């Protein structure tokens, strides 16, 4: 949990400092969806493990919204989702690639 909080705080700060982009962090998938519809950003960094609505569901809803079909999305995860306490949900990774998401960024490696 602390690692996620560290990433959630550090990533926007680094991106804001290193790029000319406006960085707008949001707390969950519902806020991300609302922000994308309102702002129509050029790029969305989307965490698979969003509270309330996971990143894949959020991405599917983005893609169904008018005006944001061309928005680029990078799907990230601090850990692949778990089906049970010991089994990684590799099917989610393959599902994302099959659905046209060409890369999956796994944050588990420092």
Task: Note down, in words, how this protein is organized.
With 110 residues, the protein is of the alpha/beta class. Helix content is 43%, strand content 12%. The protein has helices at residues 2-18, 29-39, 55-64, 90-98, and strands spanning 43-47, 72-77, 105-106. Helix 2 runs parallel beside helix 3. The longest helix is centred in the first third of the chain and has 17 residues, at 2-18. It is globular, with a radius of gyration of 14 Å.
Flag low-confidence runs: 84-88
User: How much β-strand is present in the residues?
Assistant: 5-15%
Largest sheet: 3 strands, parallel
**Alpha-beta classification:** alpha/beta
The amount of helix comes to 40-55%
Order of helices and strands: HHEHEHE
For the terminal residues, how far apart are their CA atoms? 16 Å
Radius of gyration: 14 Å
The number of distinct β-strands equals 3
Helical stretch tally:
4
Indicate the mean pLDDT. 76
Overall body shape:
globular
Strand order, biggest sheet? Answer: 1-2-3
């Amino acid at each position: 949990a602390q690692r996620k909080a560290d990433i959630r705080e550090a990533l926007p700060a680094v991106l804001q400092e290193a790029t000319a982009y406006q960085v707008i962090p949001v707390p969950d998938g519902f806020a991300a969806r609302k922000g994308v519809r309102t702002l129509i950003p050029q790029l969305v960094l989307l965490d698979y493990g969003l509270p309330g609505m996971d990143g894949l569901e959020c991405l599917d809803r983005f893609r169904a919204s008018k005006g944001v079909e061309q928005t680029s999305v990078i799907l990230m995860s601090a850990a692949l989702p778990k089906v049970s306490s010991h089994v990684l949900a590799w099917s989610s990774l393959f599902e994302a690639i099959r659905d046209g998401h060409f890369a999956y960024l796994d944050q588990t490696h420092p």
